[in-house]
């Protein structure tokens, strides 16, 4: 019997990918260099020297990938548009060849009965903008809005909704604070202005998208934060981490203010990045839905090293993915119910824009099926508790380039042989197809 879950009949089912992780063709069609091209060229930056230069060759093989999506019976496909394909230096003339590619992709999706659900920024900043300061530079927010307008002017008549940014927290921390991802800066708390400039870019882009009649979302990576013990020190550390990871990127959107980072010991502050009127602009920007990327909870203890007000503690006694991440499905319900309790009527409808796991390189990927089934049950439980959830995009359609891990982590419903580029659906692909069909055919309660 197919797995059955109790979610609204009009619930949206999809899969998600990102441009640099699947497209390849980094030097074709007038595309300019991105920070990830540069980062991958840095010795030791990416495991085994891998890069996304070829990835899944989706740039050339997208019709095959659309057929895989058609076979799943999807409602929607979340993909990202590569900023360097549209404006190779991040500013200036639009590269028509780049827009042509995404127009073919969008039209192919529509022909297959699949709604395109694009993300405008999934970490592949044009290198020329990084050379001018990247997201540490306020000007990047304005260049982002210009880019959003150029894409929407070409595709907006066929794209009903857009996601502005993907996981601004992760991009700030991994890219600018710790140097694990591109652009590879290790600024620690001096990276905080990146948070504000990304949110300002979101607000400016949301305005131009809404002017063109589109709905707007942002995809925030969120985690329920648990204190390692009931000690005052651990609980204070957990509060500090929650302020940095979750509230720093949700409070300005929904409440019009930042958490008091200095009070949590996270400060000093946002580096003077916030100007008069910025927070009002961010809070007033159209936000038709909140995208949530969820993978696992986070357990936090009092700091063990100077410089940070918290330390991550392991979550024991639970399964782990191939990536080593703890598998705690009920954390998704906990997170969503907590968001509703914190933000009340200010919380817009929620779409799960990413959820998935890396497993061993097996076509019979029962561990992934168990992971997805558990998280969808948790999503249904959140819905039953009154959370307005509209859709679910599993990560990912294809095995792909997994950032600093290169090709060592496989998240796909479809196996990719990166030498031959052969696609082979896994057991989870068939399971997801049957789940979607069963949900559509069930009689509403």
Automatic annotation (TrEMBL):
Keywords: Carbohydrate metabolism, Cellulose degradation, Glycosidase, Hydrolase, Polysaccharide degradation
SUPFAM superfamilies documented for this protein: (Trans)glycosidases (SSF51445)
Pfam families associated with the record: Glyco_hydro_1 (PF00232)
PROSITE patterns: GLYCOSYL_HYDROL_F1_2
Enzyme Commission number, as recorded: 3.2.1.21
InterPro entries according to UniProt: GH, GH_1_N_CS, Glyco_hydro_1, Glyco_hydro_1_beta-glucosidase
Superkingdom of source: Bacteria
Signal peptide start and end residues: none
Catalytic activity annotation: Hydrolysis of terminal, non-reducing beta-D-glucosyl residues with release of beta-D-glucose
Enzyme class of the recorded protein, top EC level: hydrolase
Family of the protein in this entry: Belongs to the glycosyl hydrolase 1 family.
NCBIfam families: BGL (TIGR03356)
Name used for this protein in its record: Beta-glucosidase
């Amino acid at each position: 019997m197919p797995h059955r879950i109790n979610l609204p009949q009009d619930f949206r089912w999809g899969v998600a990918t990102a441009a640099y992780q699947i497209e390849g063709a980094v030097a074709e069609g007038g595309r300019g260099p991105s920070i990830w091209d540069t980062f991958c060229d840095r010795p030791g930056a990416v495991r085994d020297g891998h890069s996304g230069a070829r990835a899944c060759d989706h740039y050339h093989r997208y019709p095959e990938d659309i057929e895989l999506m058609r076979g799943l019976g999807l409602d929607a496909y979340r993909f990202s548009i590569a900023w360097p394909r549209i404006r190779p230096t991040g500013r200036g003339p639009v590269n028509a060849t780049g827009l042509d590619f995404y127009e073919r992709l969008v039209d192919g999706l529509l022909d297959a009965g699949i709604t395109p659900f694009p993300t405008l920024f999934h970490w592949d900043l044009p290198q020329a903008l990084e050379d001018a300061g990247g997201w540490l530079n306020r000007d990047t927010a304005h260049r982002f809005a210009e880019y959003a307008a150029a894409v929407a002017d070409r595709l907006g008549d066929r794209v009903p909704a857009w996601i502005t940014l993907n996981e601004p927290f992760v991009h700030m921390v991994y890219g600018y604070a710790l140097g694990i991802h591109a652009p590879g800066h290790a600024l620690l708390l001096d990276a905080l202005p990146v948070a504000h400039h990304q949110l300002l870019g979101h607000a400016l882009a949301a305005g131009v998208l809404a002017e063109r009649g589109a709905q707007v979302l942002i995809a925030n990576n969120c985690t329920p934060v648990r204190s390692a013990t009931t000690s005052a020190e651990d609980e204070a550390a957990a509060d500090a981490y929650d302020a940095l990871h979750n509230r720093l990127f949700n409070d300005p959107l929904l409440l019009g203010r930042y958490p008091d980072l200095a009070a949590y010991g996270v400060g000093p502050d946002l580096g003077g990045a916030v100007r008069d009127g910025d927070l009002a602009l961010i809070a007033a920007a159209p936000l038709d839905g909140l995208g949530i990327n969820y993978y696992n909870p986070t357990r936090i203890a009092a700091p063990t090293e100077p410089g940070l007000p918290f330390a991550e503690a392991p979550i024991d006694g639970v399964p782990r993915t191939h990536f080593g991440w703890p598998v705690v499905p009920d954390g998704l319900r906990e997170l969503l119910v907590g968001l509703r309790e914190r933000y009340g009527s200010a919380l817009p409808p929620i779409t799960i824009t990413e959820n998935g796991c890396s497993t061993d390189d097996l076509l019979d990927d029962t561990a992934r099926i168990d992971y997805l089934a558990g998280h969808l049950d948790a999503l249904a439980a959140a819905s039953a508790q009154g959370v307005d959830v509209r859709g679910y995009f599993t990560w990912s359609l294809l095995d792909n380039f997994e950032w600093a891990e290169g090709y060592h982590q496989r998240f796909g419903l479809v196996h990719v042989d990166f030498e031959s580029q052969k696609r082979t659906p896994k057991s989870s692909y068939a399971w997801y197809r049957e789940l979607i069909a069963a949900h559509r055919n069930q009689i509403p309660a």
